[in-house]
Amino acid sequence: MVPFIGLTGGIGAGKSTALSALERLGAATISTDAIVHGLYDEPDVRDAVVARWGAEVAPDGRVDRSEVARRAFATPDDRAWLERLLWPRVGEKVAEWRATATGRALVVETPLLFEAGLEGGYDATIAIVADETVRAERARARGHASLDERTARQLSQDEKARRATYAVENSGTLEALEEELSGVLAKLTS
Asked: What order do you get walking across the sheet with 4-9 strand by strand?
């Protein structure tokens, strides 16, 4: 049986890098962030977002994700509304992908895996963790001035690592990350 794996980690920990490494190691991979980006192009999602927050969140008919994020994270009610809109659709897309994907393992990158209570749907979970200084540098390089606001609704790295089946350190080289992930895959597929 091919293991179904949830991949998570905090901002700047290197989840996307780990996902790419897992793909190179023979896993089929998908990112829930990429699914969400695609959902914003669907008319029913776009229309719901516009109905909630106004036409300025979709100038020229395309959803401005940063504007939606600004509004969604303004209040717990707005965030919960957006999660109710998106998460079931994301779940459907992942299920469709899982039904046809092939690989050594099937890996789903889900930034809020534990926060959303989704870990029970996987055979195993991997938390990518990195030194806080490294995370801050990576976040700044991607245009995030501060980790505080974006991580406020996330579990700490230590908590994600504690809850995960495997915690993988990603403060060093890509080669070191790939080697560690290769070891995890070997355990999961033997």
From this structure: 28-31, 106-109, 4-9, 124-129, 166-169
Distance CA 141, CA 161 (A): 24
Cα atoms in the 13 Å half-sphere on the side-chain side of 181: 30
- Reduced to 3 states, what is the DSSP secondary structure of residue 168? strand
Q: Are 127 and 51 in contact (CB under 8 A)?
A: no
Instruction: Report the greatest alpha carbon distance in the chain.
Output: 52
The token pair at 129 is 């963790």
Q: What is the mean pLDDT of residues 48-63?
A: 95
Q: 22 and 181 in contact (C-beta within 8 Å)?
A: yes
pTM of the model as a whole: 0.89
Nearest to 127 by CA among 172, 170, 167, 155: 167
120-179 pLDDT, tens digit per residue, is 999 999 999 999 888 888 777 776 654 554 555 678 889 999 999 999 999 999 999 999
